[in-house]
Write a structure and sequence with these properties.
By secondary structure, the chain is of the alpha+beta class. It has 19 helices and twelve strands. It has a single domain, classed as Cytochrome P450 (Cytochrome p450, Orthogonal Bundle). 51% of the residues lie in helices and 10% in strands. Helix 11 packs across helix 14, helix 12 crosses helix 13 and helix 15 (264-279) packs across helix 17 (294-304). The chain is globular and about 55 Å long.
Length: 426
């Protein structure tokens, strides 16, 4: 019996630290069938890339799979709470698939509406605004450290920077930012597997309804008075070739995707990057002395701890991947986190290598037509953020007064919810 047959990819311990399991699967069963879910788990870099490129065979219409997963999470909720959650759901606007869970040509119909906001040139134009947020937040974070104390990096810097920037890009009014930040966090948390008390599930359902109401209110305001933001673009655009305005549901669908992708992945990468700096003081010194290496450091952190560990695809026809037969109607789970540690593509993959050639070949942002539209903005925030922190801090280390950081279990995302550090001020 191979070691791969003993791996349970849903086991909490595996989710907390999946890399040994990933290696075993890459070596012994790179397309690993899970009959209980009708799912093939793909871990090798070349095979993940192959599936990402073949969008006709591996469809992004995986809504049904995600809905089944959500229903499984609600199965154990007490009947009275489930009734209240269902009542909230009935009051919500129906959200159709738009970008993430559509194939061509429908995918591009929606993506093209907002893609101009995230081109390299457009992101570069907004660099001064991003830099101001980064510098201001870094100043506040460093000042928050009490003598001989510690501070939660996730709460003080890694979370606030992307949330403020994506809030600005979307066009969320300043007076609604506190609630928006809470709602964004709740939306990302829906993809995690930490068990929740029923009342917390009910609270989160209400937050989602309140978020929809906020977005609809802002959409209607922007239709009357457009601003320079994404909500205005969506509110005043005409969907082609249909030649009609977008529905509230379509706009909420698009905004929800940016709300999660626009902050969660960047927040997680800030966290994992800071942990790497704490665990390897030489990285701190090298990056201070050679700030031009920051770009490679960012790519390496994205590779080393991919904030999106994987996404599913629906198989549209009988096929094979790496010699493994796959039937139409089955799902594949493309594990970016496993592909990014594949030694066939990245020699010595368990090391953050500041001189790694072609570090940008990592798949943390996906590949092909579904390559993350916000990747240029995320890279900009990260490439500005780490130097700003290193300019203000030295001897960065984990706080001994707090438990060591641990990932939060999730089948999709990989984040570190708390990261208490201490440091000396420069």
């Amino acid at each position: 019996m191979s070691e791969a047959q003993n791996i349970n990819v849903f086991d909490v311990e595996t989710l907390l630290d999946p890399y040994a399991a990933y290696k075993t699967l890459r070596d012994e069963a790179p397309v690993y069938f899970m009959p209980e879910m009708n799912l093939h788990y793909v871990t090798r870099y070349d095979l993940v890339r192959e599936a990402l490129k073949d969008t006709s065979t591996y469809s992004s219409r995986f809504d049904a799979f995600m809905n089944t997963t959500r229903e499984a999470g609600l199965a154990m909720v007490p009947a009275d709470v489930r009734t209240q959650i269902d009542d909230i759901a009935r009051r919500m606007v129906e959200v159709p698939p738009t970008m993430l869970t559509l194939d061509e040509p429908d995918h591009t119909k929606y993506r093209s509406l907002v893609s101009a906001l995230f081109t390299g040139s457009q992101v570069k134009k907004a660099e001064d605004q991003v830099r101001e947020v980064v510098e201001r937040t870094a100043d506040a974070f460093v000042s928050a450290l009490s003598p001989d104390g510690a501070v939660d990096f996730m709460e003080g810097f890694a979370g606030p920077v992307p949330l403020e920037i994506i809030g600005d890009r979307l066009g969320i009014p300043k007076e609604d930012r506190e609630f928006f930040d809470e709602a964004a966090t709740v939306s990302a948390a829906a993809l995690r597997m930490s068990p929740l008390p029923p009342q917390e599930m009910l609270r989160r359902a209400q937050v989602q309804l309140d978020l929809q109401e906020l977005l609809i209110r802002v959409i209607e305001a922007r239709r009357q008075d457009p601003q320079d933001d994404m909500i205005s673009i969506l509110a005043t655009s005409t969907l082609q070739p249909d030649d009609r305005p977008l529905t509230h549901g379509e706009m909420i669908s698009i905004l929800n995707q940016f709300l999660v992708a626009g902050h969660e992945t960047t927040t997680s990468t800030f966290g994992w990057g800071m942990l790497a700096l704490c665990e390897n003081p030489q990285l701190q010194e090298t990056l201070r002395a050679n700030p031009d290496l920051t770009r490679t450091f960012v790519e390496e952190v994205l590779r080393y701890e991919s904030p999106v560990q994987g996404l599913p695809r629906l198989v549209t026809k009988d096929t094979e991947l790496g010699g493994y037969p796959i039937k139409a109607g089955q799902m594949v789970m493309l594990r970016y986190g496993a592909a990014n540690r594949d030694e066939r593509q990245f020699p010595d993959p368990d090391v953050v290598d500041l001189h790694r050639p072609k570090a940008g070949m990592q798949l943390a942002f996906g590949s092909g037509i579904h390559h993350c539209i916000g990747a240029p903005l995320a890279r900009q925030e990260l490439n500005l953020g780490f130097p700003a922190l290193l300019e203000r801090m030295r001897n960065i280390r984990l706080s001994e007064a707090h438990p060591p950081p641990v990932a939060e279990p999730s089948f999709i995302l990989r984040n570190v919810p708390q990261l208490y550090i201490t440091f000396d001020r420069n």
